[in-house]
Amino acid sequence: MTGSKKATSPQDELSLTEHLAELRHRIMLCFGAIIICAILCYGISHKLFTLLALPLEEVAPGTNLIFISYPVGFFTYIKLAIVAGIFVASPFILYQFWAFISPGLYEHEKRLAIPFIFISSIFFIGGALFGYFFIFPALFHFLVSFRGTDLKLMPEISHYFGLSMRLLIGFGLAFEFPVLLIFLSYLGIIDPKLLRKNRKYAVLIIFIVAAILTPTPDIVHMVIVAIPLIILYEVSLLLISIFRIRGKRKNVGSS
Questions:
Q1: Residue 188 phi/psi, 5° resolution?
Q2: What Å distances lie between residue 59 and 105, 141, 146, 154, CA to CA?
Q3: How far apart are CA 218 and CA 113, in angstroms?
Q4: For 116-139, what is each residue's pLDDT tens digit?
Q5: CA atoms within 13 A on the CB side of 166
Q6: Residue 76: is it exposed, middle or buried by C-beta count within 10 angstroms (0-12/13-18/19+)?
Q7: What is the pLDDT of residues 53-111, one digit of tens each?
């Protein structure tokens, strides 16, 4: 059948040393893109931090973030610019990942480059936005509720930044999980029947991930985090089945 054989040109048959050199080259390009985007984002880092602190301001009006060491404020803005640079450069980073693995793919699989990069970028940024708009308000409302006459809230800027970045990046990566499942299933690496059979283990792993992402000990916030991840898992299984059916029809039609 046409389109089902891998390219066997000498350029595709690379040695281990050449693969490592190629990987290093791709990683350096990713770092370069992040640095460039971070420099651009640093110019609006004050506005970005205002947005980042907005969920806390909404549940605790008048609360000011403090820092007790002189360089902490400066380095916080640097770190924020770097994280923003990662999000801005994410399509380019995903393209470098695809470019690294593409020599080992079939021709019809290489055509998925643009959809893969586009969907992966949307899910990564969408996961961060989900954390910001839905998890942050509930989380900070819970944390602020402990203040009172005996406890005064004086959040330190580095602690707030560390918590916020862990949640944003964590949710961004967690939302990449369905894309990874669909991609691996399309390549024939994982079987959708196996995923359905082991659904209970997947749910257990999702709740473990939700517990890691949720810094509060209460079960309510963990369930709030876990539910959308479970829904994404089920949607992934549905899409995998659809792609498998279409793939079988194409194979029948071309045979």
A1: 85, 15
A2: 50, 6, 12, 14
A3: 41
A4: 889 899 999 999 998 899 888 888
A5: 13
A6: buried
A7: 999 999 888 888 999 888 998 999 999 999 999 999 999 999 999 888 887 777 877 88
Query: Which residues are within 8 A (CB) of 195 and not within 5 positions of it... i.e. 6 or more apart?
Result: 181, 185, 202, 237, 240
Residue whose tokens read 């916080």: 76
> 66 by DSSP, 3-state: which?
strand
The answer to whether 135 and 126 are in contact (CB under 8 A) is no
Contact predicate 167/216, CB 8 Å: no
User: SS3 of 102, please?
Assistant: helix
Task: Give me 88's structure tokens.
Answer: 């801005």
Q: Helices in the chain by DSSP H: which ranges?
A: 16-42, 45-59, 70-88, 90-101, 107-110, 113-130, 136-144, 157-174, 177-186, 192-197, 199-213, 219-254
pTM above 0.70, yes or no: yes
- Amino acid identity of residue 229, one-letter, is L
Higher pLDDT, 10 or 117: 117
DSSP letter string over 123-158? Answer: HHHHHHHHIIIIIHHHHHHHHHTT-SSS-----BHH
What residues contact residue 106 under an 8 Å CB cut-off, 6+ apart? 3, 4, 5, 6
At 150, the amino acid letter reads D
Backbone angles phi, psi at 7, to 5 degrees: -65, 135
Longest CA–CA separation in the chain, Å: 77
Q: Which residue, chain included where needed, has tokens 């403090």?
A: 66
